[in-house]
Design a protein that fits this description.
With 169 residues, the protein is of the alpha+beta class. The chain is built from three helices and five strands, in the order αβββββαα. The chain has a single domain, classed as Alpha-Beta Complex (Peptide Deformylase), CATH 3.90.45. The longest helix is centred in the C-terminal third of the chain and has 18 residues. Bound molecules: nickel (II) ion (NI). The site of nickel (II) ion has 5 residues, from helix 2.
Length: 169
Amino acid sequence: MAVLEILKYPAPALRRKCLPVERVTEQTAELARAMLATMHDAPGVGLAAPQVGENVRLIVVDVSVGKDPKQVHFLVNPEIESASGERIVEEACLSLPGVSEKIRRREAVRVRALNLDGEEVVLDAREVLAFVLQHEIDHLDGKLILDHLNKTKRDLVKRRLKKQARAAS
Ligand code: NI
């Protein structure tokens, strides 16, 4: 399975609001599998379609990082239906190299989505899985860890990332 390029901040694709998947097709499944391979290769615990330049509401999550196939979730058009509790969590992102910041997340979420067969699924998640789901669903609305920081911190991290991106190009 081919590994896709993961876009890094400030790639414009990371800031777009993604479009719902109208119909789950073999093409959707192919993209999802390529995203899983890319995420495992990185390695990471979650990946959203805009991170590979696809403007659609599709995320892949595996908090076991390839160790347990039962923990792989392909979610199409995921939505947080309800949430409870709060936690301060340290998060990183494959599109924000070197960034690791403490942000506020809900402790538990119920997510409704479609699977790759186009069937509706409901996922009740707590802690790590819940945090990853919130992070990936944020991506579908063009939202990054940065947007959870206060302005001073955000500007600092943005400057650092832009400098890094310039140095790499
Ligand atoms: Ni991310």
